[in-house]
Fold these 4 entries.
Entry 1:
Amino acid sequence: MDALGRRVLVTAFDGWNDAGEAASAAVSLLRAKRSYVPVFSVDPELYFDYQYTRPHIVSDGEGGRSLTWPEATLLRPENPPRGTQLWLLTGAEPARAWQAFANELVDVALREDITGIVALGSMMSDVPHTRPISVFAGSENERVRVELGLERSSYEGPVGILSVLSAAADAAGIPSASLWASVPHYVAGHTPSPKATLALLDRLEDITGAEVPRGDLATEAIAWEASIDAAAADDEEMTEYIRQLERTRDTWDSPEASGDAIAQEFERYLRRGGDGPGKPGRDDPPRR
């Protein structure tokens, strides 16, 4: 676990990087289960478009009302445990000046002696809700890949703030890794997705060695899956589409599956009209 060191900053942002709210929910649970102290918050005037990420008005327990503004805040554990410490960076994805945003946060991370960064993200994918949620774990740092058994992404295309922040961290000498959960695209009405959040936290514990709380996620994941089963039971087209996804996933996961077998199954899937109900298309954040 030395590749990321003992002060690991876990990052997640609302928005494009957060299908099914899986990543932001993971950091929210970490924050709720441990005591954290704010270290730094960006100036929202510099980075957010309030027509896109609007401020909220809230009431306190005494009848007062106040505005809360979009933020991105870095937090440290108030009572650091022995072993690996998980620091947190969470907030809304900025609308402008991404390079300045990333550089400002990396400067704070350097000042606080952060030794590694793990970015949490989630993406809509052509996967069945009935199978384990797959998590792509990757890094651009060779030592991190070798020591933790991660992959190097071959993805090319649009990226979110997680990729920009990770690139800035790597350039500054802070090694980074990314974890991306695949959320079934047809469950948009069943957000949040606790099963995906649980998968991210499981993998986070694997690569950091830190003790990661799960709360009631296991029970919530079972209920989430059952609610989708119930919804699909009344829709023959959806039921058949899920079966197609299950067959494809089982082929990929089979230990005896050859490249030819996988290719044949994928071709059959395409011939059946692999876009599925609503033809959602693919979201491109994978492989980052």
Entry 2:
Amino acid sequence: MKRFFIFIYVVSLLFSVKLYGRDEAIDQDTAEVKKLNADAYLTRLTNPAQTVIGATRALALAQKMGYSNGIGEAYRVKGIGNYYLNRPETAIDDYLNALAAFSKTNSLKDEAKVYNNIGNLYLDNDYDQSLEFYQKSLDIAKKLANKELIASLYLNLGNVNYRKMSYYQALSYYDKSKEIFTELKDSTNLIRILQNRGVIYFKLNQLDKAQQLLTAANQQAKERDLNEPVASIDLTLASLYIVQNKFDDAQQIVSEGLNYARIVKDQKLEHDFNYTNYELELKRKNYQQALIYLRDIYRQDSSTFKTNVSSQLGLLDVKHKQEAKDRENQLIIQRQQYDRVRFWAVTIVAGLLLVLVGLLVSNVKRKAKTNVQLTNLNAEVSRQKDNLDRINHHLEEIIDERTKDLQVKNRKLSDYSSYLSHQIRGPIATLKGLMNLEKEGLVDEAECIRMMNKCVGEIDDKIIEMSDMLHDPVRSEV
């Protein structure tokens, strides 16, 4: 028996070690997915193609282990890479897959990030649609008090207002974003704000301030190897130098920016630099070279137009599909809510009926108990009434007896009073006579005193006799 228990203990120990090792391996894989996604995201502004590669590796590993949040983030980062590579159809597909993955884990923060990314994607095609996604993301970010996301959304809302030529409204959003990013010490986004403010002041024809901001942004972007921002800043600086007739500076900055655009493989930026070259040569009145750039631009525009139209149609198609899916989901949610409401309504009604039945049963029991108590109370009242009747009868007898006794005593008192009045009146009358005689001097003083003493003695004897008669029950009845 002892050996059997030892065997069970060893097997359990080995099984727990195996499970622990498996959990440890899963934790390591999860950490690897997070690292791959983070590294891929960091290269979005320097090498977006590498962003797509890194995110694809993270996606494969996350799918293998069934790590939903890792899958969603990999799709999101991959979509960001495709966005910077000007592949909107692929990017929107990645973003929708990311939303599907995050919805399984109910990760609102990550869903809000994806809505922000989709808003960026629609920024160049549909301002209203872009604002809709930004606002949806902002609502969630404020609910979660996520400062980083709120700041990014303020930055993007500023970009929308810039495109709508509401420049001062855009500057207001940039100021809000700058305040939060400064608190978070986010240097990359602070460079973007610096660049965007420079672009707006260029549009407002405040060239000195624009040049100061753009030059500072350019220098900081180079220090952090942010190739895409450097290229886009150079594009605005080139236009600014052309306006100022600084043609050599413009030529130099265009060459620099074109190299950075090629590094990040941004064909749209390359096209924009070719158009800037055309503007530069035209401003120099070098018409032959300007014509050459114009032909290249025409060919690129034709190709770009087809690509843009295709991309826009693809986005619209995805948009309609997404809207249809959203409507379907809304119907499902409404149906679920209706079923939930109906369930709770039935439950509440059933509960109320149970309470009502309980109250009725309790009322019946309480009435039965009250009836028993009333019956007992009536019996007790009857007993008390009988006792009171007996007591009343006895009291009547006592009262009759006392009344008769009082009548006798009253009669005796009346007799005593008459007796006293008769017996004492004589000596008192004698005393009064003696006092009158003494005043007249008709009687000897000694004789008067003797006779008065005799009268007083008689009165005293009569009073004592009367007192004895009142207190002596035997004599009183004679």
Entry 3:
Amino acid sequence: MSRFVTSDMEQVREWLGQVYGTRLLVGHIGDSSRLALSIVAAGPLMTTDLTLPGILHCRNQDIETVRIGYVLSGTVMIDDGEAVNRYGPGDALVATFPRDNLVSRAEELRIRTVSLPLDLLIEVAGGSPDGSGDPPRLLSRAPLGAGASRTIANTLALTDELLSSPAARHPLVVGNAARLLAAGVLATFPTTLTVREETHTDHSDATPAVLRLAIDYIEAHYAEPDLSLAAIAAAACATPRAVQYAFRRHLGTTPTGYVRQVRLSAAHADLLAADPADGATVSAIAARWGFYHLGRFSAYYRRVYGRPPRATLTT
């Protein structure tokens, strides 16, 4: 096991880059606060226990490993370009998946993570690890079912215990622990390795009535930061796949894309009503509606309204 503790922002930047492939965009930690990082690595697995004091904004892109996290305290918000997902204590999440391009905001966060190669997931799922076929894709960052986060927590605890014991010196033990973890990940998060994206029932259920129920729910709950596809689907009395297909069929977008449109409209209204003389800023208004990456927000805004958000605020 390796352990690092620091309050030096340059070291924070270096360690996040080395261990997670994460680029620190901006961050602040108090004078008396410390980043703490414990690492246990064996074979293809690496587990970490990370404490990030203060508020940090980071980017992950072109990461080739799968990293699963379990939040112990604090919060983290992840913007993957399609949706903004918020996680708090007791939540499991996909921190990174190959070909991700993510922006995250961590606040007083302590998180356990484990990383494993994508090839291992493909092998355990019964696929071909030689790269033939379409690359596996993550279908949702939300775990499957109410008990899924606890499954990840238990699997992480068991893996960490194995890797910290003398048995970790035996390749067979490490290999079986890695497969156990991969099986837990596949059972907890939907990917194209284990879940068919669409079924005949999903297509049949993708009716205008399902779409209307989903839209009504979104328009009543879009201000909630943890609005999820699962909740939208439950309100529409359909599967998440059926709801996604209904949006594509009838509106040419996705549920998360529609949520983004509604929130962008709310941000536009706030920009029109705000007064810079009172301290209003584009970044604060964008963050209020779940847009934590100012560059992405500005691009979305300009695409819809034909000018940058700052021009609206100062008009």
Entry 4:
Amino acid sequence: MNVSTDLRVVRSRKLIEQALMDILHNQGIKGLTVKNLSQKAGINRGTFYLHYKDIYDLIEQSEWMRGLLEIFEPIQLGHLFKHSDERSPFPAFAEAFRYLQHHSSFFKAIFHSSVPIEFRERLQYLVGTRMYESLKQDHPQSSWSDQPAGYIIAYLGTGQFGLIQHWFVTGRTLPPEEIALMLTRFIRQSPCLSPHFSGS
């Protein structure tokens, strides 16, 4: 790819992400269609599909979602269970909720109660997969490893997504550190996880 082509790609993606934010802010996720987004960005539908498979792929690749996933990426559950201060949240969770708060104009639309079921399931899978990979890395021979991976990922992802969604739906009345502490305690006390880490 030459420099001029690369610059066009960057420009197109920037226009698309700006249109994404504008539509989410003014119409919510229900107004987010390829047609509306292409019109708002001043591009044709073909240009959109050169960069993204669909609307959900755009959201997953957006700078805001990538930023959130980068915070979760290095989290090791073994470290969480060694976090000894019962009155403070696991630092990475606190960072994640501060990030969600800082970019709330984007995430409140993504975690809205009206979000389509297909996208909710994809988000749950993204979050659940990252936790599952951490489990495999920390305890590859644990008894849960004999269970079907899809069910474990669904269990882990649904819990995280539900907590974040409820936080946004209720207007984020709890500060980021408090909701992060709640998540820390939920995971530490989870019957699916705690037996495998209590002896770490």
